[in-house]
Structure formats: structure tokens, C-alpha cells
Amino acid sequence: MNAYSESRPEFDFIDWIKKQVTLRPEVKLGIGDDAAILSHQPNREWVTAIDVITEGVHFTSETPPELIGRKALAINLSDIAAMAADPVAVFLGIVLPKSCGRAYAEQLYAGIFEMANEYELSIAGGDTNSWSGPLVLNVTVMGTVEQGKAILRSGANAGDWIFVTGPLGGSLASGRHLTFEPKLKEAKILAQHFHITSMLDLSDGLASDARHIASQSGVGMIVDTQSLPIHTDVNPDLPEAERVQHAMSDGEDFELLLTVSPEEGERLLSEGIQLGVAVTKIGECTEEVGMKLQSGDALIDWPRGGWEHEV
Amino acid sequence: MNAYSESRPEFDFIDWIKKQVTLRPEVKLGIGDDAAILSHQPNREWVTAIDVITEGVHFTSETPPELIGRKALAINLSDIAAMAADPVAVFLGIVLPKSCGRAYAEQLYAGIFEMANEYELSIAGGDTNSWSGPLVLNVTVMGTVEQGKAILRSGANAGDWIFVTGPLGGSLASGRHLTFEPKLKEAKILAQHFHITSMLDLSDGLASDARHIASQSGVGMIVDTQSLPIHTDVNPDLPEAERVQHAMSDGEDFELLLTVSPEEGERLLSEGIQLGVAVTKIGECTEEVGMKLQSGDALIDWPRGGWEHEV
Fold this sequence. Notes:
Chains A, B: Mg(2+) 1 binds at residues 51, 127. Two copies of one chain form a homodimer. The first copy, chain A, is of the alpha+beta class. Chain A has two domains: 19-146, CATH 3.30.1330.10; 161-301, Phosphoribosyl-aminoimidazole Synthetase, Chain A, domain 2 (Alpha-Beta Complex). In chain A, 32% of the residues lie in helices and 28% in strands. In chain A, strand 12 and strand 13 (298-301) form a beta hairpin. In chain A, helix 2 (65-82) packs parallel to helix 3 (101-118) and helix 2 packs parallel to helix 5 (184-193). Chain A is globular, with a radius of gyration of 21 Å.
């Protein structure tokens, strides 16, 4: 039989969380009821993203808890950025190992709060449990976007140019996956000044994620390996082919991948930097379905089985 | 280095999920992009609830997977019911043990789909992971409610009568926590025909949950143990005091606890059943803050440490 106390640690902790939270006007009712209430904003619609991260997969038991909390929120904000939307409210489903203790839990949440405050969004609800298993964080982020203005994966056209917002590769090995800034600002600038035909955030790696745009838009892609921006986190002493593989397949870059018409592409290349977005053209969409890699004069199939280690 | 394949089981599985999903008109964009898009409905606002269930806490490794999936969704729908809202969209954050296999995962999802279809809501997004740990399900449900009509925990007044929608106790031991129907229909009827001052769904048990209404409304409560409806799942051979304890503290009843003025209470008792809602009056809200139990002529404090086992 359960024993209940008003001073049950769970409720103390919820009170502690509530004290850290600033409510945005859209959040009419936050933590503390059966559900949160989100008010409608005229001419806007809601976008909702969800991501789960688990110990041993997306972080280790040695990762500082602040950075785990930070990452759980940042990867969702990256999804919201990919829709060119504004994040509003966060819902946290957290399963804590019983052994971790209150101080650890507070550090975990501190990482979430810091990022939530930085991007001015409200923790609007959650469910915190403990168990004998490892740490799990499930974050749901709700945001808003002007009606009809979300950028989807399905709008790329044959002939469109393909861009990325930053260098790729080495994120997991370097720890960059724990400290990256989601490209919310960049996405808003891009959506405001250019006609973006499709966009997503690179989480699994270009080799995997680019296929989503291709298949949902019904186009093929040619990516020029020589124009791929490779992150300095990738060992410069490796052979070039291996460095390209890292850039395409390591994953967790959380840069944006986007397509625009050639005319918009020219404009993006000439005006982007002044507006605050540095992009690199890495390829083009093709009428012919299929993924190809261009390396110098050679044009090879993106292997059917995916980007496979060639060494 | 990751190997990627268009035939990666993860994507096969997402395709399989997409085929089971019916999209409601509010869900403008569902599974398959960085985030879902939810359209605004005139004069309504969004409510969002989140719940996590974990192996070993809310179910065991022997629980049939269909019932685990069902429960994960049902407990969220119970939260939506407690706001007197209509569920619209579900977001699933699921961490599968690597050992469980595709058939198990499909059964788990089948339980979710069945309940989603029964209540006409759409699976609008999710993130499915696998790991070496036990099963975790995180469900976020979004619903809508007429603007300003959500029923909160904070509106009870001194003098209000306290009701429950069904018998309490024995839910976990009997397995009822896996098969209960969330009180969505009942909540809508109640909200439509009566002025409900506060409401919540009983998840932790009356002894614990009633305090949320009391503290958020700034009232006390006297609950009459003799009028408590005790579920047939509670052993009838136990001494009465013990049966009451089960009813108050076992938890996972997922009945609604609500308050109304005495006038509305009279009307609820006389008209409720014809409208399709059977409720039981279990007590009253008091001006004096504090939780009390009435047992015959005796009025005792709800122990400060909570409802504690007395035997």
C-alpha cells in the first residue's frame, strides 16, 4: 500500500521545477494540472516534435548531466528549426535511475532550463519517474509557425540546389553533439528571405537524411564530395575518402539541409552571409530518381545498401 | 561508421506504422517530417498531457505487449478527460529492448492503434529507439477544448460536494489498470450539463490526488469513508478499514474526482444517471484547510504523513 506525504520528494522536486519556469503568454496553464493549456495565436499553427535519448546510445553514464539535459532539448529545437518554426513549450518525460540522487536530477534539469531560457520557451509539463534502469529522456517540443509557412521535406524540385548550414562529421567523437546550438535563428532568416523548397535537420547523417528529402519530394540527388564542408573535428590526417565518409555518415551534426531553386541559390550564396547565414552548396536535385556521389569526374551510385565503409 | 540502407528495419517499421494511422483534419501533417503540424480550430485551445510508463513499475515483462501499449495511451487519455477536452493527436516516444523483436513491437503498437482508433485520434509523430535496457513508453497526447472551458484543479470552493465516477481500489492487483476505459465520454457529459468547479483523474490514489485539488483550490476536504465506493477487485473478506485503505491508496483507478456546488450536486445525483454518468458523493470541501476522514461519528486527520497503513 502506498504511503503518501505532502512532503513526498517527488512533489518537492516538482515545486523546485516550477520555480525555474518562466511562462510565455501562449502557455495559459503550465505544470501542475492534468494537462497544459496552450492558447491559440492568430494566423499561426502548432508544430510538435518528439525525441527520445537514452543512456548508452545518445550519451554515456560519464556524460555530465547538464549536457544530457541540454542535448535532449537541443535536438528537439533542431527539429523545430527545420520547420522554420518558433519553439514555445517543452514537455519532459524523464526516467531517472534510482541511484542517481537529487543533485544529479537537478543538474540534468539545470541543463534543460538553461537552454529553455536561452531560447525563451516554457517548461509546460512533464512526468518524472525513477526506476532501476538507466536514464531516459523524452522531450516533446511544441512551437508555432505562420499558417502555411512551415518548410517540409517534400517540396524539393529537380534542378534545385542543395545546401548545408555548416561543416559535417566527427560530432559524436568530439562531443559536439552535446554542445551544438540548434539552428533556430538561421532557419528563420532563411525562411524569411529566401524561398526554401525543402529542409530538415541532419541527425542521422547526410547519407541517411538526404534520402528523406529525395524520396518525399520524388527527386534524385547528386552530392559533390569535393564541396562537402568537413568539420575540423574529423581527423585531417585521414585519407580524403575516409574524411568524406565521416562527414556523410557520422551523424548528429544538427546542421540544416535545404534546397532552393538555382535562382534563389545564387542569391543565397551572395546575400546569405550578410544576413547572418553561411551556407555551402553541396549538390543538386535531379529529375532521375536515385542518389549519386560526384567525386571529381567520377559519378558513382550512392550504394543501395547505403553509405558503406570502403576501407 | 553508420551503414545506411533504404531498407533499414527502422524505416520499414515507420512505414508499417504510417499505414495504420488515420489522420484527423486537425492533423495537417503527421508522421514523416521533422515535426507534425496541427491546424487551429476556431474558438478552441490545445491541451497537452504527457505520461511515461516503464517496465517493472507500471507493467512487468510478462504483461502482454498489446495491453502495455493500450495503457500508455489510456492513462494520457484519462488526463485529457480530466480537462473535459477531446483528444486529437498522439506522439509516441518508445524505447524497445533490443531483444524484443519486431513481432513484439508490432503487438505493442497494435494496442496503441486499437485505442487510438476507438477514440478517433491520430498518431501524429514519434521516435522509436532500441537499447539494451527494459521497455519505456512515453506518450504525449494533444487535444482541444472550447476556449476557457477546460476544467482545472484549482476551482473548488468551500462547501462544494466531492464526487467520484466509479469504484476505487485493487486496480493494480486485478490488472484493471491495463484494461480500463478512460472517462472521456463521462467528462464531456459532466462538463456539458453541470458546472464542475474542479476535476482530475485518480492515478496515484484518492489519498494522494485529492490533495492536489485541495491545495490548488485553497480548501480543505472531509471524505466520508463509509460512502466511498470500493471496487469488487478489493477483497471483500478484509476488515472494512483495510478495504477503505485500498480504495484510497492503491492508485491507478483512473476514475474522475470532481467538485460541484451543493445545488449542482443535488442535480447531478438526480440527473446524472439518465445522462449516462453514475457518480458517488464521497465528501465535501471545507473552508478550513486540511484533509479529514469521517468514519461514522469519528472525524480524524488524514495523517500528515499521508494515508498510512494502520494494520
